[in-house]
Amino acid sequence: MTRELKDERPPALPSSPNLNGAHDLTCVCAFPFFAPNLPERQRELRSRMLTAQKDAERDRRQKRINQLCADPAWHAVLILFTGRLLNGDGRVWRHVDLEAGQIHFPRILKDYTFSGGQRRMVEIAASLFNHGHNVNLHRVLGGFDYENEELVLKALRAFLGALR
Prior knowledge:
Helix content: 55-70%
Distance between the termini: 106 Å
Strand content: 5-15%
Shape: elongated
Order of helices and strands: EEHHHHEEHHHH
């Protein structure tokens, strides 16, 4: 028996002329056939990475807030700043440096775009944080609704309770 040898070389790749007229091999990219959902997968991976980074940042920030709450002044201010009137307000939070443990109240109070209640809440926070900033409680509490009065009282309890 004799066997016939078959030519099992791969077929020639297509070529194209280059600038000199010679033929260069061109790459036949079959990648889209193997990963048809690549753009969706890439978006999903980017989204997961961003979510993980945001979660890590949120956890780091929460850990720092917990450390700062050991100080009664910080605890009281954070109670006020996370209340309904000021929670998430960029006019306030851009002047709060959690890492350095500083709040720039003069800069916050120079902003005259706050409502009356918001401004009074910032003044109360400043008086608890800085001993040099005095407020008249009768004046600042007079215009608050029940919810905000309770928030101020909670902040005062946090401030005074830790000092005892």
